[in-house]
Amino acid sequence: MDTKKWRMDTSLIHTGQEPCQKTGAVVSAVVPAVAYAFTDAEAAAAVVAGEKEGIYYGRYGNPTIAALEAKIAVLENGEAALGVSSGMAAISGALLAFLKQGDHVICTRDVYGGSYKFLTSLAPRYGIAVDFADCTDLAAVEQAIRPDTRVLYLETPSNPCLTILDIERLSELAHAHGLTVIVDNTFMTPYLQKPLELGADVVVHSATKYLNGHGDVIAGFIVGKREAIQFMRKHIMGDLGQNLNAWDAFLILRGLKTLGLRMRQHCQSAEQIARYLEAHPAIERIYYPGLSSHPQHELAKRQMSGMGGIVSFEVKGGAQAAKSFINALRLAMISFSLGDPETLVQHPASMTHFSIPPEEREAFQITEGLIRLSTGLEDVSDIIEDLEQALRPLVSTVKAGS
Ligand SMILES: Cc1ncc(COP(=O)(O)O)c(C=O)c1O
Question: What keyword terms does UniProt attach to this protein (predicted)?
Fold first, then answer.
């Protein structure tokens, strides 16, 4: 089938999936096999040596996962993709593929807490150094580049403050210095942003979030050049045992069919929620790239085809107010994840970004009053009514204090 002419919503359903030649089944079968039989010893040796394409052992790949990888590569417009066991397996795997002992990486400042933790605790044990730079400022990034810098690691929009980074200009700068650019595209998905088309070298995903979209799978993807992906499959994912499994790949293939529908709804509802919160007297600050008050609103409009489903905001009154607000919610659930059908809220300073020391958290704008809300697919009026009833007691406190 010619997949090139398909638009995104069609590609999400058809790419990499054809009816079964034997039974005509429209939905692909799950192949749980770990081992694959060869006609002779030479054929087996050729596959393991990489001289011939083929699947030989479940830790290095599987036909169900291969169909999903082919789809993700097309969606991101990359040469190849690798499905792994989690978003963190994708992030650590991609970083380890391009870094070795004695190398230095520059990372954007407010980054997912797990990525921060990997770069500041595990990577240094293997001789890899990191500096965090304000990547909204190209001069600051250029200043942070050292002779041993090999990678620029970006996340845009960032978790949790939704900072937008200019992938195109940062990639130009990084490439002029010989660096590899890795972008975490979890918040956007290829439906809303395609970093490889903007000049990045590698895209990583937590497929646990929007790509699967139903809160029942932990998975990750790395997308990039075929040679780099082959290296990661054999020498990183394979050696560290970070492989995805066939059942989860099947669930992601199923979830992806509705990615377009889901993302459009997430974006529409998030924008309504952001506008509601922006006008609310109990809210100190709001972060949503779709608002004209967002500092990188113009860049967001150029770089992204939708503003995403995450809204972050600071309530007046700090940690105490933030916690009593989320405790008062009845529909939205307090949870560490995002990108699910359910509206999920969390307090980054004490939950997802707890591993970042308090002084650094403040410097990254992750204050004690900050809340991250992942807009679900419920009726947006119900979500807003829930927010309203939980914010009401804060308004009285704010008034009493002023
Ligand atoms: C932006 C981002 N990247 C990566 C991850 C890690 O994903 P996983 O939990 O699938 O390892 C997360 C998790 O919340 C995330 O928010």
Answer: Aminotransferase, Pyridoxal phosphate, Transferase
